[in-house]
């Protein structure tokens, strides 16, 4: 192997000894990180996943002791068997779609980027872990790392949590790498075009009278805490444009995502609704709730709905089961006739191209 060129003054292996034998400084590590999924749909594995996920102080943002009691005394024992049943519906012969598509993308992105990069898939919770991905970069002596959380819109509970975990690991390294985090990518034209192409395919097959854009919800409290001005966020019309003062607001970013998609798809005002799903617990979450929107649309006489889930880049429980099956059933029970989920970006070439750009654009 040729002696690699120095990409920066700090391009040296972080540890000596055995690692030095396989050190490949000069290559850039790309850590792609999705939320995570249980190792299997068994109750113990789902419980383990839920415990790790919900004990994260950025997800359930209450003090550690009440969080511990809530997660271990209520959520893990009672929710795990119910969630495991839903995970069994989701599971395919290749396992959890979230992980499966992550693995496909890991290979495709590696192929597209070539030998100058080392691509590793990690999950914020469970496996493959962020610790394992970063340990591999350390073993290879990589001193330049790009971290891409698979969340198009920034939220403290998702992107923020990935940052925190990565920094927790890196703080133990002797040589801190050059590091870049991708904060969000809802504005990326190829990300938007990816969903537009999937939507157009369905629109060519059927006529739809309404379009629903359902995003994962968040507790309102977390949106308020993220208002860096402490004065802009009203959790209402303040989210109807995205600008310098509210740019970190997850809700405002979701409305911006919808605006970009409907513009490209040519969907007129009045024919689309942005809403938020998956509320957990009794605290108010950001609104409108998808469940209410589904019932209201059916009550208004809407018959045919095409539903997008643009907070997710891979099919998962939240899209396939919740939007694709549960809201469909609710819509039909209330008089609707046809409800169709637009599948996620999964292994589409536009998604791979988006990632290549995110890695290479500084
Ligand atoms: C945009 C992405 C996500 C945000 C924001 C988010 C916030 C959030 N989630 C919970 C609780 C649960 N989420 C669950 C599943 C789940 N959540 C996301 C993404 C976001 N979550 C994904 C991709 C998935 C599916 C993973 C899969 O394996 O397919 C679950 C587990 C399922 C269940 O029991 O319903 C819980 C619980 C909270 C509390 C929260 C905000 C703070
Ligand atoms: Fe979630
Ligand atoms: Fe807002």
From TrEMBL:
Region (Disordered): 1-24
InterPro entries assigned: Ferrochelatase (IPR001015), Ferrochelatase_C (IPR033644), Ferrochelatase_N (IPR033659)
Domain of life: Bacteria
Record field: compositional bias (Polar residues): 1-14
Cell compartments where the protein resides: Cytoplasm
Spans through the membrane: none
Gene3D superfamilies reported in the protein's UniProt record: 3.40.50.1400
Keyword Phosphoprotein set for record: no
Keywords associated with the record: Cytoplasm, Heme biosynthesis, Iron, Lyase, Metal-binding, Porphyrin biosynthesis
Reactions it catalyzes: heme b + 2 H(+) = protoporphyrin IX + Fe(2+); Fe-coproporphyrin III + 2 H(+) = coproporphyrin III + Fe(2+)
GO CC terms in record: cytoplasm
Pathway noted in the entry: Porphyrin-containing compound metabolism; protoheme biosynthesis; protoheme from protoporphyrin-IX: step 1/1
Annotated family: Belongs to the ferrochelatase family.
The protein, known as: Ferrochelatase
Gene designation per UniProt: hemH
């Amino acid at each position: 192997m040729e002696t690699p060129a120095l990409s920066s003054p700090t391009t040296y292996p972080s540890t000596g000894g055995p690692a030095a034998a396989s050190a490949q400084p000069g290559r850039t590590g790309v850590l792609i990180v999705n939320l995570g999924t249980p190792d299997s749909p068994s109750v113990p594995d789902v419980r383990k996943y839920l415990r790790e996920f919900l004990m994260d102080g950025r997800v359930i943002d209450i003090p550690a002791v009440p969080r511990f009691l809530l997660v271990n005394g209520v959520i893990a024992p009672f929710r795990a068997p119910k969630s495991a049943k839903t995970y069994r519906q989701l599971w395919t012969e290749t396992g959890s779609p979230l992980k499966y598509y992550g693995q496909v993308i890991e290979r495709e992105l590696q192929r597209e980027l070539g030998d100058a990069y080392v691509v590793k898939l990690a999950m914020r919770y469970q496996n493959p872990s962020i610790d394992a991905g970063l340990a591999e970069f350390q073993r290879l002596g990589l001193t330049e790392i790009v971290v891409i959380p698979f969340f198009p819109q920034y939220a403290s509970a998702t992107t923020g949590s990935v940052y925190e975990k990565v920094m927790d690991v890196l703080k133990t390294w002797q040589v801190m790498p050059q590091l870049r985090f991708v904060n969000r990518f809802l504005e990326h034209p190829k990300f938007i075009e990816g969903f537009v192409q999937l939507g157009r395919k369905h629109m060519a097959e059927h006529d739809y009278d309404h379009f629903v854009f359902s995003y994962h919800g968040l507790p309102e409290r977390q949106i308020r805490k993220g208002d860096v001005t402490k004065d802009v966020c009203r959790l209402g019309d303040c989210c109807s444009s995205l600008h310098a003062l509210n740019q970190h607001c997850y809700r405002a970013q979701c409305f911006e995502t919808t605006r970009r998609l409907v513009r490209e798809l040519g969907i007129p005002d009045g024919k689309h609704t942005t809403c938020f799903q998956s509320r957990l617990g009794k605290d108010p979450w950001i609104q409108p709730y998808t469940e209410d929107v589904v019932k209201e649309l059916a009550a208004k006489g809407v018959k045919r709905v095409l539903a997008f889930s643009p907070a997710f880049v891979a099919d998962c429980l939240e899209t396939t089961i919740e939007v694709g099956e549960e809201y469909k059933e609710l819509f039909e029970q209330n008089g609707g006739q046809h409800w169709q989920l637009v599948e996620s970006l999964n292994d589409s070439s536009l998604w791979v191209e988006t990632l290549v750009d995110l890695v290479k654009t500084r």
